[in-house]
Amino acid sequence: MKIIIAPDSFKGSNTTIAVANTIEKGIRKVFPDAEIIKVPIADGGEGTVDALVLGAGGEFKEKTVTGPLGEKLTAKYGVLKNGVAVIEMAAASGLPLVPEDKKNPLVTTTYGTGELIKAALDDGCKQIVIGIGGSATNDGGMGMAQALGVSFKDKDGNELGSGGGELDKLATIDISGLDPRIKDTEIIVACDVSNPLCGERGASAIYGPQKGATPEMIKQLDANLRHFAGIIKEQLGQDIIDVPGSGAAGGLGAGLIVFCGAQLKSGIETVLDVVNVDKDLPTTDLVITGEGKIDGQSVYGKVPVGVGQRAKKYNKPVLAIVGDIGDGASAVYDHGVDGIMSTVNKAMPLSEAMQRSTELLEDAAERVMRIIKIGMDIKK
Question: What is the CATH number of domain 2-41+284-379?
Answer without folding.
Answer: 3.40.50.10350
